[in-house]
Prior knowledge:
The chain has 23 helices and five strands. The protein is α/β, with parallel strands linked by helices. It has three domains: 5-130, Rossmann fold (3-Layer(aba) Sandwich); 132-166 and 204-292, CATH 1.25.40.80; 303-481, DNA Cyclobutane Dipyrimidine Photolyase, subunit A, domain 3 (Orthogonal Bundle). Helix 4 (105-120) links the parallel strand 4 and strand 5. Helix 5 (150-159) packs across helix 12 (268-292), helix 12 crosses helix 17 and helix 14 (328-340) packs across helix 15 (345-358). The longest helix has 25 residues, at 268-292.
Amino acid sequence: MGTGTAVVWLRNDLRLSDNPALSAAAESYDSVAPVFVWSPDEAGAWSPGTASRSWLALSLASLFVDIGRLGGHLSILAGPTASALLAFARTTGATAVYWNRRYEPALAALDAHVERRLAAAGVRVHVFAGSLLREPEALTTGSGSPYQVFTPFMNAGLRAAPVDPPIAAPSLLVSPHALPAGLRPQDIAGTSRSGPDLSIHWSPGESGAASAAASFFSEIVGDYGENRNHPDRLGTSRLSPHIAFGEISPRTLLQRANAIVSCNGSCHISAGAEAFVRQLHWREFAYHLLHYHPHTPERPLRARFDVFPWSRDPDALEAWQSGMTGYPIVDAGMRELLATGWMHNRVRMLVASLLTKDLLLPWVDGARWFWERLADADLANNTFGWQWVAGCGADAAPYFRIFNPVLQGERFDTDGAYVKRWIPELEALPAAWVHRPWGAPSGVLASAGITLGREYPQPIVDHASARLRALAVYGSLRDIVK
Ligand SMILES: Cc1cc2nc3c(=O)[nH]c(=O)nc-3n(C[C@H](O)[C@H](O)[C@H](O)COP(=O)(O)OP(=O)(O)OC[C@H]3O[C@@H](n4cnc5c(N)ncnc54)[C@H](O)[C@@H]3O)c2cc1C
């Protein structure tokens, strides 16, 4: 171990295990000063939304305790980042700053700026990689260009050199003698606008992430391949906010999943683990795309979509945001989002399809609302998901795929349990009508206590004609959108 102090700048890697920057600093220096800098304005157009801020505050509170258990101290400072880190290095006597790389365009630019400022002041910077299985530049096509299609990207990943195993958490963190007074985690939540009480639904922090992973791999993974499409079942890991804040690393998850694949050979538990590894690769693909196409959070990957004639309809947007479109599966998803900061993947696709195809509203409006309300808001995944559904991204859904919210509801939420969980107004409606209450006979509606337009809205748009309209608009631009 060398002498002196190193700062570890923590950002979206709020964990002790498999944290390369933290472990390297702890191995190389006598004392380590972990710090988080709260400076949302420096994230540019994509500063953390309501749900992310709430999650962050809870996650930092948990990390504060975890670091304290190892003998260390987590400082939380207010930005601007470069000045805050420089002052922090001076106070603590640190000669080096360690961090793990970020990939969001504004944050990567901020990191480069901070690195220059620290280097100019004689502070050494050590940058590690800990948020992805492989760096975004690691995989390119035979011609050396980035991938545009998922399956070859994933296959290249599976053929590439094995991913390094996760590294253990440091066993001890020694604090420097002098530490400045900082913010408290709740000061970050205090800046949050109204939002759900996330602690009702989640356990933010590294130990919460570990428990969620443990229950996924012991109870859920076996049927993941089938159940992951059903929002009425506990069929997915619900790890996304933990992953977004780096409370558990993708390498740790890959190792757990691979252990199941290799132990169980051909049984279906192994198929579930393989399906999960595939989902981890969708995340990798989203980061690969964001890295090579940094304009995509605001603009379509397929440039010819720049001229798409999106509609403007603030009332329709508001109905969609508040879960009042009259399509129960869509409204259930939007209300789940408002209440919990999360939405099931299949339902994310359905609500995004209704917005961009049935209502022809801009996908960016949807992406911004998700950003504001998702606890797992992740610029790469969110951008990718929205562009995929809108048909303007990489490997996107073909333009003629327009999800039918009734058929999708009947297929994936057959008894209507998911809809009824989030739309109590429809509780007494028989399953046969729960995904299309407007079709129910008046007597059925009356005995369920529903008058459409009063307890629950009429559909905001007629799906059959909206579908034809979308096909006409997308189709007339076929030479543009192909
Ligand atoms: C319109 C739209 C917006 C989305 N916005 C986000 C977002 O902001 N943040 C986010 O993490 N995911 C986003 N997703 C992807 C996906 O819906 C969530 O990752 C998933 O629902 C999280 O639930 P889970 O952790 O139970 O997933 P699981 O099925 O258990 O998957 C495990 C992990 O794999 C990754 N993953 C799974 N599906 C995808 C996917 N389609 N794309 C990229 N990574 C994936 C996630 O990290 C997830 O936690 C979006 C999808 C759509 C269609």
